[in-house]
Write a structure and sequence with these properties.
It contains 13 helices and 13 strands. The strands form two sheets. Strands 11-12-10-9-8-7-13 form a seven-stranded mixed beta sheet, sandwiched between helices. It has a six-stranded parallel beta sheet with strand order 3-2-1-4-5-6, with helices on one face. The protein is about 40% helix and about 20% strand. With about 350 residues, it is of the alpha/beta class. The chain is globular. The chain folds into two domains: about 200 residues, inorganic pyrophosphatase (n-terminal core); about 140 residues, Roll (Diaminopimelate Epimerase, Chain A, domain 1), CATH 3.10.310. The structure holds manganese (II) ion. Manganese (II) ion binds next to loops.
Length: about 350
């Protein structure tokens, strides 16, 4: 029996469907949720809501919302009536960054590709494949199995999801990813994809970027960048993606204070360094982290009254990250020498 048949059989007993994305949904969560909604509507002939907490801030992703109009709802909380089929996408049920866990609801189904470090809970349906590049690959494969046409906009969203999930050294495409990418590319709109990827950027974004590059330090093959404040949380991921491309740098940790939270992005270049594990070790007891072999994210909530990262927390995080990476060096050098910045201003 195909996976999609098993999912649809499980869901057929229900009349109400909530597809739940992780908080601050990324393109993969959005495209996957949208794909499952289309599957449920086309095959079961029933409506489904696609919901998630938090916000969408990255300029490209906001532009995607404008151009593709995915049928998603950003909600801080949701009333989940009894008898609702909850389908968690692009997120493990044991993760702490989704609506259901805050309401103590166990999902009926999970569709995900993240590495889990916890024992799996018993669920009616689970399709977790850490070997695929994107959850959207799994959702698209369901549509293909059921002969459901995604349409140009959903196909474009799914291609974009795959492209974003394979950035920052996570370029491994499984055989299924490659086959699905071909299937989707025939259906997607390349002009829309290009427009999304060159979204207009705010001046504040360039301010964050300039500050980040000036605050990057190198310890052997490790780069660290702590931003005392940032306009948007997306900068940590973007700077991490940029720094991991620097010659000679193989592990990167970026952090920034946004509001009262401290956000993290980690990247690793080689297969021997697992980004999710390194970041979990660094944030152990302080905050949560999750992700993939080469890309991971994390957060410490409610720090420093929304101002600068306390100096001792800063030192502790640096010490832990360097220890996790096995780097002895205590002092780093600036990625760009200070004199070079000041003399040329
Ligand atoms: Mn994903």
């Amino acid at each position: 029996m195909a996976k999609s048949d098993r999912l649809l059989t499980t869901l057929d007993d229900f009349d109400r469907f909530f597809v739940v994305m992780h908080d601050n949904p990324d393109p993969d969560a959005i495209a996957t949720g949208w794909g499952i909604r289309v599957l449920v509507r086309e095959i079961l002939n029933k409506p489904a809501r696609v919901i998630g907490g938090g916000a969408i801030v990255r300029a490209e992703n906001r532009h995607m919302l404008d151009l593709l109009q995915p049928p998603i709802e950003l909600v801080d909380d949701a009333d989940v009536p009894d008898g609702t089929a909850t389908i968690l996408v692009d997120c493990g049920s044991e993760s702490t960054n989704h609506l259901l866990i805050r309401k103590n609801i166990l999902p009926v189904a999970v569709i995900d590709h993240h590495i889990s470090n916890q024992r799996a809970l018993r669920l009616a349906f689970r399709d977790v494949r850490p070997n695929v590049a994107a959850s959207a690959t799994i959702a698209a494969s369901y549509l293909r199995e059921q002969n459901v046409e995604p349409g140009a906009k959903l196909a474009t969203a799914m291609v974009y999801a795959l492209r974003t999930e394979t950035r920052g050294c996570e370029t491994r495409h499984s055989r299924l990813d490659r086959a699905i990418l071909t299937w989707l590319t025939e259906r997607a709109e390349p002009a829309l994809l290009a427009e999304i990827e060159t979204a207009p950027l705010s001046r504040e974004y360039f301010g964050d970027l300039a500050l980040a590059i000036q605050n990057a330090f190198v310890y052997d093959d490790v780069a660290l960048c702590f931003l005392p404040r940032a306009y948007g949380a997306e900068i940590v991921g973007e700077v991490a993606d940029l720094l991991i491309r620097c010659r000679g740098i193989r592990r990167v940790l970026c952090a920034a204070v946004v509001g009262t939270d401290l956000f993290f992005s980690a990247r690793t270049e080689t297969d021997s360094d697992n980004a999710a594990q390194l970041l979990r070790a660094t944030l152990n007891g302080l905050g949560g982290a999750g992700g993939h072999d080469h890309r991971a994210g994390g957060k410490i909530a409610d720090i420093a009254n929304g101002s600068k990262i306390a100096e001792d927390l800063n030192d502790e995080l640096r010490r832990r990250w360097l220890a996790a990476c096995g780097v002895d060096r205590k002092r780093g050098t600036r990625l760009i020498p200070k004199r070079q910045i000041v003399d040329n201003l």
